[in-house]
Amino acid sequence: MNCYNHNNIAAVAQCPDCGVALCAKCVALFTMPICASCKKKRISSEILEITQGLLLTFAVGILFAILLFRWTNEGHSFPLLFKIISFVIPFYVFSGLVPGWKTLTMLTPRVFLILPILGWIIYFIIKFLLSLCIGVFVFPIYIIKDSIRLVILRNRKHGL
To answer: Which residues contact 119 (CB under 8 A, 6 or more apart)?
Structure first.
């Protein structure tokens, strides 16, 4: 069997995604033997996943901040600085909910799969509250990590 890209060279591996044959030169392009089109698809998929995660993070923060802002400022005429602070702080805290949840999911053992329904309710309430607490600290880390990863992936995608 010969390489998909180089018809006159013998193949040494196959792309794990699409199964096309690859020669030693094509295999050496990436850290794992994969064809260029499948590598682009994987990069596009990861970019989409990170973008959706960031959008969800900020959407949760904005939603909860607006709800809390409307609830606390309804019928009151507070100074502008107080209104800004009463939106920004809840936005930051609730934006950390998604990264906090992801962090706890990585740490939580799968033992909780056998809980009864009441156990699940208690579990999710505790996880929600812990996610808010942990999220305050991991939110900036996730944003920086995901932003850097997006820049790297976009550069790689355009370099292929």
So the answer is: 112
pLDDT digits 0-9 by tens, 66-107: 998 888 777 677 787 877 888 899 999 999 999 999 999 888
Where do the structural domains in the chain lie, given as residue ranges?
Answer: 1-34, 39-159
pLDDT higher than threshold 90 for residue 119: no
- pTM recorded for the entire structure: 0.76
Find the DSSP H helices in 36-116: 36-73, 80-95, 97-107
> 37 φ, ψ to 5°?
-70, -40
Cβ-Cβ contacts under 8 Å for 138 (sequence gap 6 or more)? 96, 99, 100, 103
At residue 108, the 3 state secondary structure works out as: coil
Cα–Cα distance list, 96 to 23, 27, 87, 140 (Å): 46, 40, 14, 8
